[in-house]
Design goal:
By secondary structure, this protein is an alpha/beta fold. Helix content is 35%, strand content 14%. The strands form 2 sheets. An 8-stranded mixed beta sheet has the order 1-2-4-3-5-6-7-8, with helices on both faces. The longest helix has 14 residues, at 120-133. It is globular, with a radius of gyration of 19 Å. It starts with 24 loop residues before the first helix and ends in a 23-residue tail after the last strand. The relative contact order is 0.14. Mean pLDDT is 75; it is low at 1-24 and 309-355. Its main location: cytoplasm.
């Protein structure tokens, strides 16, 4: 496989004036078309091809929003519902969105050799290769599960490249012996689909067999690239510890989110305990869209006039799974019907966002 990097040229169509939103109908239409269609690129790295989709404005004057999906999902099923919400159009019009598909996870991907072995940290190297091929000085990372781990590792090794991180259901620890043994037993007694579902959902949700769980089960079991999905699953399970503490943590603002009773709740709480409390938010927002916009605003990239207030009455737990159909779940949903993209529920130690 060639290691030659391909440069993705991103030119700004119309520079934005500071503090002013582009309100013309032509600009709104262009943003919508770009959001719906996207610009697809394949970036070859020494560790595989990264399928990349660009959405939103093509400005390079602001950091790009770089997303990385979880195991069992791709960039489209994980993040498209979120950025199609009306409340997110200020983000779409003012930022470039770069959605990454892990090697072999995009629709129509060719099967990877089963003997191929990739460790999770290698994907972070691939993200670095991608970063060097685009014309952005910095990025804001949004990762879920395995994607959160990968972007966190990227941020620790490339601190000057990352201005902010939104890490959802992150586990920064390598698998211990007990977890390793449990995973080995599970691989013998359970199908790959059921293993991934246990990663995405709580036992309570799996037992209740909700429509959302069923939709994920069908999607994963019938995925044409299931063998590639297994490679990513094995890679994530072979992850190494992320080494950091409050004195040597991330140099950028971080927003941590995790669901109530989520599979990785304890791991996320432990991660929070090692973070710098002055730059870290461990939140239970009622709406992902508003929480995310406030996070962006806190970095000085959105005027306060663009923001709406967070509702005190919306105290519904955010799901730790990413819904494909918009129905509410505790697990990993980015799309939550008409509620503005609720996020995974966070533990009781977290504070609730309100203004």
């Amino acid at each position: 496989m060639t290691t030659e990097m391909q440069e993705i040229a991103i030119t700004e169509d119309k520079p934005l004036l500071t503090g002013q939103a582009d309100t013309t109908k032509d600009a709104e239409l262009a943003a919508r078309i770009l959001l719906d269609q996207g610009q697809e690129h394949s970036v070859e790295t020494p560790h595989g091809v990264l399928h990349v989709t660009l959405h939103g404005t093509r400005t390079t004057r602001r950091p790009a929003i770089l997303t990385f999906h979880d195991v069992g999902l791709d960039s489209k099923s994980c993040f498209s519902p979120l950025f199609k919400f009306e409340e997110m159009q200020e983000i779409v019009k003012n930022f470039t969105l770069i959605h990454i598909d892990a090697p072999g996870q995009e629709e129509g991907a060719a099967a990877y050799p089963q003997q191929l072995t990739l460790c999770a940290h290698v994907y972070a190297v691939g993200v670095n290769n991608l970063y060097r091929s685009v014309s952005f000085r910095t990025v804001i990372g949004v990762g879920v599960g395995a994607g959160a781990y990968i972007l966190a590792r990227f941020a620790l090794t490339n601190p000057d490249a990352v201005e902010g991180l939104v890490l959802i259901n992150i586990d920064t620890n390598a698998r211990g012996w007990i977890d390793w043994a449990a995973q080995k037993l599970s691989s013998v007694t359970s199908s790959l689909t059921e293993q991934i579902l246990c990663h995405l959902f709580s036992q309570e949700e799996l037992s209740s067999s909700t429509d959302l769980v069923q939709s994920y089960r069908e999607r994963i079991s019938k995925a044409p690239n299931l063998s590639n999905m297994e490679l990513l699953w094995k890679s994530y399970n072979s992850r190494r510890d992320l080494i950091f503490d409050r004195n040597s943590a991330f140099k950028c603002p971080v927003m941590l989110v995790v669901g109530d009773h989520a599979p990785y709740e304890d791991a996320a709480v432990e991660c929070n305990s090692k973070m710098d409390p002055t730059t870290t938010s461990f939140l239970k927002p009622a709406k992902l869209t508003e929480a995310f916009k406030y996070f962006i605003q806190g970095m000085g990239y959105m005027a306060s006039s663009c923001m709406t207030r967070l509702s005190r009455s919306r105290t519904t737990s955010l799901s730790s799974s990413y819904s494909m159909d918009g129905s509410r779940s505790r697990s990993r949903t980015l799309s939550q019907g008409s509620q503005g993209g609720q996020m995974p529920p966070s533990p009781s130690q977290t504070m609730e966002v309100s203004c």
